[in-house]
Write a structure and sequence with these properties.
It is a single chain. By secondary structure, the protein is mainly alpha-helical. It has two domains: 1-221, MFS general substrate transporter like domains (Growth Hormone, Chain: A, Up-down Bundle), CATH 1.20.1250; 224-453, Up-down Bundle (Growth Hormone, Chain: A). The chain has helices at residues 9-28, 34-45, 50-79, 81-100, 105-117, 121-132, 135-162, 177-180, 184-204, 211-217, 223-238, 242-268, 281-310, 312-329, 338-371, 375-404, 415-430, 438-452. The two termini are 35 Å apart. Residues 1-5 and 445-453 have low confidence and may be disordered.
Length: 453
Amino acid sequence: MAEPVKDAGKGALLVLFLVTMIDMIGFGIIIPFLTYLVKDLAQAEGVVHVGLWVGLLMTSYSAAQFLFSPFWGSLSDRIGRRPVLMVGLVGNTVFFTAFGFSNTLLFALAMRFLAGVFNGNIAVARAYIGDVSTPQQLATRMGLIGAAFGLGFTIGPFIGGEFSSPAERWDFFVGTVFDTYPYLLPCVIASILSTGSLVLAFYKLPESVDVRAKNELKERKAWTAHMSGMAKNSVVMLGTSSIGAMIWVSMLFIFGFTVMHAVFILYTEMSVNLGGLGFSEQDNGRVFAMIGLLGILTQGALIGPLTRKYGTRRLIPASILVTGLGLTLIPYTQASMAWIQMLLVTSCIAIGNGLFQPSSSTYLTRIAREEGYDLGAVMGAQESLGAFARILGPLSGGLVWELTASGSYPWDYHTAFHLCGALMVISALLTLRLPALSNLEAGEQASSTVEKS
Protein backbone atom coordinates (compact mmCIF):
# COMPACT_ATOMS: atom_id res chain seq x y z
CA MET A 1 0.00 0.00 0.00
CA ALA A 2 1.36 3.41 -0.93
CA GLU A 3 2.10 5.89 1.82
CA PRO A 4 0.33 9.25 1.83
CA VAL A 5 2.23 11.73 -0.34
CA LYS A 6 2.17 14.39 2.35
CA ASP A 7 -0.06 16.04 4.89
CA ALA A 8 -2.15 18.35 2.73
CA GLY A 9 -2.50 20.94 5.49
CA LYS A 10 -5.37 23.02 6.81
CA GLY A 11 -6.07 24.76 3.50
CA ALA A 12 -6.75 21.48 1.71
CA LEU A 13 -8.89 20.19 4.57
CA LEU A 14 -10.92 23.41 4.47
CA VAL A 15 -11.52 22.92 0.74
CA LEU A 16 -12.63 19.31 1.31
CA PHE A 17 -14.98 20.45 4.07
CA LEU A 18 -16.50 23.06 1.75
CA VAL A 19 -16.80 20.61 -1.15
CA THR A 20 -18.78 18.17 0.99
CA MET A 21 -20.89 20.91 2.57
CA ILE A 22 -21.79 22.34 -0.85
CA ASP A 23 -22.76 18.88 -2.05
CA MET A 24 -25.28 18.66 0.81
CA ILE A 25 -26.41 22.24 0.21
CA GLY A 26 -27.13 21.20 -3.38
CA PHE A 27 -29.16 18.23 -2.14
CA GLY A 28 -31.09 20.17 0.50
CA ILE A 29 -31.57 23.55 -1.15
CA ILE A 30 -34.51 22.42 -3.27
CA ILE A 31 -36.45 20.77 -0.42
CA PRO A 32 -38.32 23.89 0.77
CA PHE A 33 -39.43 25.06 -2.68
CA LEU A 34 -39.50 21.90 -4.82
CA THR A 35 -43.19 21.19 -4.28
CA TYR A 36 -44.11 24.78 -5.17
CA LEU A 37 -41.92 24.68 -8.29
CA VAL A 38 -43.50 21.40 -9.41
CA LYS A 39 -47.00 22.74 -8.79
CA ASP A 40 -46.27 25.87 -10.84
CA LEU A 41 -44.82 23.89 -13.75
CA ALA A 42 -47.46 21.16 -13.54
CA GLN A 43 -50.26 23.71 -13.67
CA ALA A 44 -48.71 25.32 -16.76
CA GLU A 45 -48.34 21.92 -18.45
CA GLY A 46 -51.66 20.45 -17.32
CA VAL A 47 -49.97 17.73 -15.26
CA VAL A 48 -51.94 16.41 -12.28
CA HIS A 49 -49.51 13.89 -10.71
CA VAL A 50 -47.66 16.43 -8.56
CA GLY A 51 -46.61 13.96 -5.85
CA LEU A 52 -45.01 11.61 -8.35
CA TRP A 53 -43.01 14.42 -9.95
CA VAL A 54 -41.81 15.63 -6.56
CA GLY A 55 -40.60 12.11 -5.83
CA LEU A 56 -38.90 11.84 -9.24
CA LEU A 57 -37.04 15.13 -8.80
CA MET A 58 -35.93 14.21 -5.28
CA THR A 59 -34.77 10.79 -6.46
CA SER A 60 -32.98 11.86 -9.64
CA TYR A 61 -30.06 13.54 -7.85
CA SER A 62 -29.38 10.52 -5.59
CA ALA A 63 -29.83 8.09 -8.48
CA ALA A 64 -27.30 9.94 -10.62
CA GLN A 65 -24.78 10.03 -7.77
CA PHE A 66 -25.28 6.31 -7.12
CA LEU A 67 -24.67 5.48 -10.79
CA PHE A 68 -21.75 7.81 -11.46
CA SER A 69 -19.82 8.05 -8.16
CA PRO A 70 -17.91 4.84 -9.01
CA PHE A 71 -16.90 6.36 -12.34
CA TRP A 72 -15.58 9.55 -10.71
CA GLY A 73 -13.81 7.57 -8.01
CA SER A 74 -12.11 5.39 -10.61
CA LEU A 75 -11.25 8.42 -12.74
CA SER A 76 -9.68 10.13 -9.72
CA ASP A 77 -7.37 7.11 -9.36
CA ARG A 78 -6.23 7.58 -12.94
CA ILE A 79 -5.93 11.36 -13.33
CA GLY A 80 -5.82 12.53 -9.70
CA ARG A 81 -8.28 13.71 -7.04
CA ARG A 82 -7.81 17.45 -7.63
CA PRO A 83 -9.10 17.67 -11.23
CA VAL A 84 -12.10 15.45 -10.47
CA LEU A 85 -13.07 17.55 -7.44
CA MET A 86 -12.80 20.69 -9.55
CA VAL A 87 -14.96 19.18 -12.31
CA GLY A 88 -17.58 18.43 -9.65
CA LEU A 89 -17.52 22.04 -8.46
CA VAL A 90 -17.89 23.32 -12.04
CA GLY A 91 -20.83 20.96 -12.49
CA ASN A 92 -22.42 22.29 -9.30
CA THR A 93 -22.00 25.88 -10.46
CA VAL A 94 -23.57 25.25 -13.87
CA PHE A 95 -26.42 22.91 -13.00
CA PHE A 96 -27.53 24.60 -9.76
CA THR A 97 -28.17 27.80 -11.72
CA ALA A 98 -29.68 25.93 -14.68
CA PHE A 99 -32.18 24.27 -12.36
CA GLY A 100 -33.34 27.71 -11.23
CA PHE A 101 -34.25 28.49 -14.86
CA SER A 102 -36.51 25.43 -15.14
CA ASN A 103 -39.60 26.17 -17.23
CA THR A 104 -40.75 22.57 -17.79
CA LEU A 105 -40.82 19.50 -15.58
CA LEU A 106 -38.60 17.54 -17.95
CA PHE A 107 -36.00 20.32 -17.99
CA ALA A 108 -36.02 20.44 -14.18
CA LEU A 109 -35.61 16.65 -14.03
CA ALA A 110 -32.74 16.73 -16.53
CA MET A 111 -30.89 19.51 -14.68
CA ARG A 112 -31.31 17.77 -11.34
CA PHE A 113 -30.03 14.49 -12.77
CA LEU A 114 -27.04 16.17 -14.42
CA ALA A 115 -26.17 17.93 -11.15
CA GLY A 116 -25.96 14.48 -9.58
CA VAL A 117 -24.00 13.04 -12.52
CA PHE A 118 -21.24 15.65 -12.22
CA ASN A 119 -21.10 15.52 -8.46
CA GLY A 120 -19.24 12.50 -7.16
CA ASN A 121 -17.27 14.71 -4.84
CA ILE A 122 -18.07 13.09 -1.51
CA ALA A 123 -16.52 9.75 -2.48
CA VAL A 124 -13.50 11.51 -3.99
CA ALA A 125 -13.12 13.77 -0.93
CA ARG A 126 -13.06 10.69 1.30
CA ALA A 127 -10.41 9.14 -0.93
CA TYR A 128 -8.37 12.36 -0.74
CA ILE A 129 -8.48 12.30 3.06
CA GLY A 130 -7.40 8.66 2.99
CA ASP A 131 -4.45 9.62 0.76
CA VAL A 132 -3.09 12.36 3.01
CA SER A 133 -3.88 11.06 6.51
CA THR A 134 -2.01 8.79 8.87
CA PRO A 135 -4.06 6.09 10.66
CA GLN A 136 -4.07 8.31 13.76
CA GLN A 137 -5.45 11.27 11.80
CA LEU A 138 -7.98 9.35 9.72
CA ALA A 139 -10.92 9.14 12.15
CA THR A 140 -10.77 12.82 13.05
CA ARG A 141 -10.47 13.95 9.46
CA MET A 142 -13.27 11.66 8.28
CA GLY A 143 -15.33 13.31 11.02
CA LEU A 144 -15.01 16.52 8.98
CA ILE A 145 -17.14 14.87 6.30
CA GLY A 146 -19.87 14.12 8.85
CA ALA A 147 -19.76 17.68 10.19
CA ALA A 148 -19.98 19.07 6.66
CA PHE A 149 -22.98 16.83 5.98
CA GLY A 150 -24.84 18.23 8.97
CA LEU A 151 -23.94 21.84 8.29
CA GLY A 152 -24.78 21.56 4.59
CA PHE A 153 -28.17 20.02 5.31
CA THR A 154 -28.85 22.92 7.71
CA ILE A 155 -27.71 25.72 5.40
CA GLY A 156 -29.16 24.29 2.18
CA PRO A 157 -32.86 24.22 3.14
CA PHE A 158 -32.51 27.56 4.92
CA ILE A 159 -31.15 29.23 1.78
CA GLY A 160 -33.74 27.46 -0.35
CA GLY A 161 -36.57 28.73 1.82
CA GLU A 162 -35.42 32.25 2.70
CA PHE A 163 -34.50 33.29 -0.85
CA SER A 164 -37.37 31.71 -2.79
CA SER A 165 -39.84 34.10 -4.48
CA PRO A 166 -37.76 37.20 -3.56
CA ALA A 167 -39.97 39.55 -5.60
CA GLU A 168 -42.85 38.84 -3.23
CA ARG A 169 -40.78 40.01 -0.26
CA TRP A 170 -38.35 42.65 -1.56
CA ASP A 171 -39.24 45.37 -4.07
CA PHE A 172 -35.67 45.35 -5.39
CA PHE A 173 -36.38 42.07 -7.24
CA VAL A 174 -39.69 43.12 -8.81
CA GLY A 175 -39.50 43.08 -12.60
CA THR A 176 -36.14 41.25 -12.63
CA VAL A 177 -35.27 37.75 -13.81
CA PHE A 178 -35.81 36.64 -10.21
CA ASP A 179 -39.43 37.71 -10.53
CA THR A 180 -39.85 35.62 -13.69
CA TYR A 181 -38.04 32.64 -12.13
CA PRO A 182 -38.97 32.79 -8.42
CA TYR A 183 -36.69 29.90 -7.41
CA LEU A 184 -33.59 31.09 -9.25
CA LEU A 185 -32.04 33.17 -6.43
CA PRO A 186 -31.30 30.31 -3.99
CA CYS A 187 -29.84 28.31 -6.88
CA VAL A 188 -27.59 31.23 -7.84
CA ILE A 189 -26.43 31.55 -4.22
CA ALA A 190 -25.52 27.85 -4.21
CA SER A 191 -23.61 28.37 -7.48
CA ILE A 192 -21.71 31.31 -5.99
CA LEU A 193 -20.70 29.18 -3.00
CA SER A 194 -19.56 26.46 -5.39
CA THR A 195 -17.55 28.97 -7.43
CA GLY A 196 -15.85 30.21 -4.26
CA SER A 197 -14.86 26.66 -3.39
CA LEU A 198 -13.59 26.16 -6.95
CA VAL A 199 -11.27 29.16 -6.59
CA LEU A 200 -10.05 27.88 -3.21
CA ALA A 201 -9.48 24.42 -4.68
CA PHE A 202 -7.46 25.90 -7.55
CA TYR A 203 -5.11 27.75 -5.19
CA LYS A 204 -5.18 25.67 -2.00
CA LEU A 205 -5.70 22.04 -2.99
CA PRO A 206 -2.56 20.10 -3.95
CA GLU A 207 -2.79 16.74 -5.67
CA SER A 208 -2.83 13.89 -3.15
CA VAL A 209 -1.71 10.94 -5.29
CA ASP A 210 1.23 10.11 -7.52
CA VAL A 211 -0.93 9.34 -10.54
CA ARG A 212 1.83 7.77 -12.62
CA ALA A 213 2.92 5.39 -9.87
CA LYS A 214 -0.67 4.59 -8.95
CA ASN A 215 -1.58 3.71 -12.52
CA GLU A 216 1.42 1.42 -12.78
CA LEU A 217 0.38 -0.47 -9.66
CA LYS A 218 -3.38 -0.50 -9.97
CA GLU A 219 -5.29 -2.37 -12.61
CA ARG A 220 -7.94 -0.25 -14.27
CA LYS A 221 -11.47 -1.27 -13.46
CA ALA A 222 -14.36 -0.62 -15.83
CA TRP A 223 -17.51 1.06 -14.59
CA THR A 224 -19.63 -2.02 -15.34
CA ALA A 225 -17.21 -4.24 -13.42
CA HIS A 226 -17.27 -1.81 -10.51
CA MET A 227 -21.09 -1.76 -10.37
CA SER A 228 -21.21 -5.55 -10.70
CA GLY A 229 -18.69 -5.87 -7.89
CA MET A 230 -20.73 -3.56 -5.65
CA ALA A 231 -23.87 -5.60 -6.30
CA LYS A 232 -22.15 -8.92 -5.56
CA ASN A 233 -20.53 -7.53 -2.42
CA SER A 234 -23.87 -6.20 -1.17
CA VAL A 235 -25.56 -9.58 -1.71
CA VAL A 236 -22.76 -11.38 0.13
CA MET A 237 -22.91 -9.00 3.09
CA LEU A 238 -26.71 -9.22 3.32
CA GLY A 239 -26.34 -12.99 3.55
CA THR A 240 -24.23 -12.81 6.71
CA SER A 241 -25.93 -13.00 10.09
CA SER A 242 -25.13 -10.02 12.28
CA ILE A 243 -23.53 -7.85 9.56
CA GLY A 244 -26.46 -8.49 7.22
CA ALA A 245 -28.98 -7.63 9.94
CA MET A 246 -27.25 -4.33 10.69
CA ILE A 247 -27.13 -3.37 7.02
CA TRP A 248 -30.86 -4.18 6.67
CA VAL A 249 -31.56 -2.07 9.76
CA SER A 250 -29.66 0.87 8.26
CA MET A 251 -31.24 0.47 4.82
CA LEU A 252 -34.81 0.42 6.18
CA PHE A 253 -34.06 3.42 8.39
CA ILE A 254 -32.79 5.44 5.41
CA PHE A 255 -35.74 4.27 3.32
CA GLY A 256 -38.26 5.47 5.91
CA PHE A 257 -36.41 8.71 6.54
CA THR A 258 -36.18 9.68 2.86
CA VAL A 259 -39.87 8.95 2.20
CA MET A 260 -40.38 12.04 4.35
CA HIS A 261 -38.22 14.17 2.02
CA ALA A 262 -40.82 13.82 -0.73
CA VAL A 263 -44.04 14.16 1.28
CA PHE A 264 -43.20 16.57 4.10
CA ILE A 265 -43.79 19.73 2.08
CA LEU A 266 -46.64 18.20 0.11
CA TYR A 267 -48.32 18.10 3.52
CA THR A 268 -47.13 21.38 5.06
CA GLU A 269 -47.98 23.51 2.01
CA MET A 270 -51.47 21.99 1.80
CA SER A 271 -54.36 24.29 2.69
CA VAL A 272 -55.39 24.37 6.35
CA ASN A 273 -58.95 23.58 5.25
CA LEU A 274 -57.69 20.29 3.80
CA GLY A 275 -55.71 19.35 6.92
CA GLY A 276 -52.35 20.92 6.03
CA LEU A 277 -50.51 23.84 7.59
CA GLY A 278 -50.44 26.39 4.76
CA PHE A 279 -46.66 26.81 5.12
CA SER A 280 -44.63 28.97 2.74
CA GLU A 281 -41.21 28.15 1.28
CA GLN A 282 -39.64 30.21 4.07
CA ASP A 283 -41.52 28.28 6.77
CA ASN A 284 -40.39 24.96 5.33
CA GLY A 285 -36.77 26.10 5.02
CA ARG A 286 -36.76 27.06 8.68
CA VAL A 287 -38.19 23.69 9.71
CA PHE A 288 -35.45 21.79 7.89
CA ALA A 289 -32.79 24.16 9.22
CA MET A 290 -34.14 23.44 12.70
CA ILE A 291 -33.83 19.70 12.07
CA GLY A 292 -30.25 20.20 10.90
CA LEU A 293 -29.26 22.32 13.90
CA LEU A 294 -30.80 19.90 16.37
CA GLY A 295 -28.98 17.06 14.61
CA ILE A 296 -25.65 18.87 14.92
CA LEU A 297 -26.28 19.53 18.64
CA THR A 298 -27.21 15.88 19.16
CA GLN A 299 -24.02 14.60 17.56
CA GLY A 300 -21.95 17.24 19.33
CA ALA A 301 -23.36 16.99 22.83
CA LEU A 302 -25.59 13.93 23.33
CA ILE A 303 -24.04 11.01 21.50
CA GLY A 304 -20.97 10.71 23.73
CA PRO A 305 -22.70 10.70 27.16
CA LEU A 306 -25.58 8.49 25.98
CA THR A 307 -23.20 5.96 24.40
CA ARG A 308 -21.17 5.75 27.59
CA LYS A 309 -24.29 5.29 29.70
CA TYR A 310 -26.35 2.90 27.57
CA GLY A 311 -23.99 1.47 24.94
CA THR A 312 -24.23 1.62 21.16
CA ARG A 313 -26.28 -1.57 20.90
CA ARG A 314 -29.14 -0.14 23.02
CA LEU A 315 -29.06 3.28 21.39
CA ILE A 316 -29.73 1.89 17.90
CA PRO A 317 -33.34 0.62 18.41
CA ALA A 318 -34.16 3.55 20.71
CA SER A 319 -33.02 6.09 18.13
CA ILE A 320 -34.98 4.33 15.37
CA LEU A 321 -38.21 4.36 17.38
CA VAL A 322 -37.79 8.01 18.39
CA THR A 323 -37.28 8.96 14.73
CA GLY A 324 -40.28 6.86 13.67
CA LEU A 325 -42.47 8.53 16.29
CA GLY A 326 -41.57 11.97 14.96
CA LEU A 327 -42.17 10.99 11.33
CA THR A 328 -45.53 9.40 12.11
CA LEU A 329 -46.77 12.43 14.06
CA ILE A 330 -46.00 14.98 11.32
CA PRO A 331 -49.50 14.96 9.72
CA TYR A 332 -51.19 15.24 13.12
CA THR A 333 -49.78 18.73 13.63
CA GLN A 334 -52.57 21.30 14.15
CA ALA A 335 -52.35 24.60 12.29
CA SER A 336 -53.36 26.53 15.43
CA MET A 337 -50.30 25.20 17.30
CA ALA A 338 -48.13 24.45 14.28
CA TRP A 339 -44.77 25.76 15.48
CA ILE A 340 -44.97 24.34 19.01
CA GLN A 341 -46.00 20.93 17.77
CA MET A 342 -43.55 21.07 14.86
CA LEU A 343 -40.72 21.78 17.32
CA LEU A 344 -41.61 18.63 19.27
CA VAL A 345 -41.96 16.52 16.11
CA THR A 346 -38.73 17.75 14.52
CA SER A 347 -36.90 17.27 17.84
CA CYS A 348 -37.80 13.58 17.74
CA ILE A 349 -36.68 13.32 14.10
CA ALA A 350 -33.43 15.24 14.57
CA ILE A 351 -32.40 13.62 17.84
CA GLY A 352 -33.30 10.13 16.64
CA ASN A 353 -31.44 10.53 13.36
CA GLY A 354 -28.53 12.27 15.10
CA LEU A 355 -28.12 9.29 17.43
CA PHE A 356 -28.70 6.59 14.82
CA GLN A 357 -26.15 7.64 12.20
CA PRO A 358 -22.98 7.55 14.35
CA SER A 359 -24.26 4.63 16.46
CA SER A 360 -24.97 2.42 13.45
CA SER A 361 -21.59 3.20 11.87
CA THR A 362 -19.79 2.53 15.15
CA TYR A 363 -21.61 -0.75 15.72
CA LEU A 364 -21.03 -1.94 12.16
CA THR A 365 -17.32 -1.10 12.35
CA ARG A 366 -16.79 -2.89 15.64
CA ILE A 367 -18.83 -5.95 14.80
CA ALA A 368 -17.01 -6.28 11.46
CA ARG A 369 -13.69 -6.27 13.28
CA GLU A 370 -14.98 -8.65 15.95
CA GLU A 371 -16.13 -11.18 13.35
CA GLY A 372 -13.13 -10.75 11.06
CA TYR A 373 -14.80 -9.15 8.01
CA ASP A 374 -13.00 -6.77 5.70
CA LEU A 375 -14.10 -3.32 6.82
CA GLY A 376 -13.92 -1.80 3.35
CA ALA A 377 -16.23 -4.46 1.95
CA VAL A 378 -18.70 -4.00 4.80
CA MET A 379 -18.82 -0.22 4.50
CA GLY A 380 -19.04 -0.46 0.72
CA ALA A 381 -22.09 -2.72 0.99
CA GLN A 382 -23.73 -0.40 3.52
CA GLU A 383 -23.11 2.66 1.34
CA SER A 384 -24.41 0.94 -1.81
CA LEU A 385 -27.63 -0.22 -0.16
CA GLY A 386 -28.04 3.10 1.62
CA ALA A 387 -27.79 4.90 -1.72
CA PHE A 388 -30.40 2.55 -3.15
CA ALA A 389 -32.69 3.35 -0.19
CA ARG A 390 -32.24 7.10 -0.83
CA ILE A 391 -33.38 6.52 -4.40
CA LEU A 392 -36.35 4.35 -3.45
CA GLY A 393 -37.55 6.47 -0.52
CA PRO A 394 -38.59 9.75 -2.20
CA LEU A 395 -40.00 7.90 -5.20
CA SER A 396 -42.12 5.65 -2.97
CA GLY A 397 -43.24 8.61 -0.90
CA GLY A 398 -44.37 10.57 -3.95
CA LEU A 399 -46.20 7.57 -5.37
CA VAL A 400 -48.00 6.74 -2.11
CA TRP A 401 -49.01 10.39 -1.73
CA GLU A 402 -50.37 10.47 -5.25
CA LEU A 403 -52.44 7.33 -4.65
CA THR A 404 -53.84 8.24 -1.23
CA ALA A 405 -53.74 12.00 -0.54
CA SER A 406 -57.31 12.65 -1.69
CA GLY A 407 -58.81 9.61 0.06
CA SER A 408 -60.38 9.22 3.50
CA TYR A 409 -58.59 8.40 6.76
CA PRO A 410 -56.44 6.38 7.24
CA TRP A 411 -55.85 6.12 3.48
CA ASP A 412 -55.28 9.82 2.92
CA TYR A 413 -52.44 12.31 3.42
CA HIS A 414 -51.55 10.49 6.66
CA THR A 415 -50.68 7.28 4.80
CA ALA A 416 -47.20 8.20 3.55
CA PHE A 417 -46.16 9.20 7.08
CA HIS A 418 -47.64 5.99 8.46
CA LEU A 419 -45.40 4.21 5.94
CA CYS A 420 -42.39 6.02 7.43
CA GLY A 421 -43.39 4.83 10.90
CA ALA A 422 -44.00 1.24 9.72
CA LEU A 423 -40.56 1.05 8.10
CA MET A 424 -38.97 2.34 11.31
CA VAL A 425 -40.80 -0.28 13.40
CA ILE A 426 -39.58 -3.05 11.08
CA SER A 427 -36.07 -1.64 11.28
CA ALA A 428 -36.22 -1.55 15.09
CA LEU A 429 -37.53 -5.13 15.24
CA LEU A 430 -34.60 -6.29 13.11
CA THR A 431 -32.21 -4.97 15.77
CA LEU A 432 -33.33 -7.94 17.90
CA ARG A 433 -31.04 -10.00 15.66
CA LEU A 434 -28.02 -7.87 16.52
CA PRO A 435 -25.69 -9.55 19.02
CA ALA A 436 -24.68 -7.68 22.16
CA LEU A 437 -20.97 -8.38 21.96
CA SER A 438 -19.06 -8.08 25.21
CA ASN A 439 -16.02 -6.80 23.32
CA LEU A 440 -18.16 -4.05 21.81
CA GLU A 441 -19.35 -2.82 25.19
CA ALA A 442 -15.88 -3.21 26.65
CA GLY A 443 -14.50 -1.06 23.88
CA GLU A 444 -16.99 1.70 24.70
CA GLN A 445 -16.19 1.54 28.38
CA ALA A 446 -12.48 1.74 27.59
CA SER A 447 -13.14 4.73 25.35
CA SER A 448 -15.11 6.36 28.15
CA THR A 449 -12.25 5.80 30.59
CA VAL A 450 -9.75 7.36 28.20
CA GLU A 451 -11.96 10.42 27.65
CA LYS A 452 -12.36 10.97 31.40
CA SER A 453 -8.67 10.57 32.17
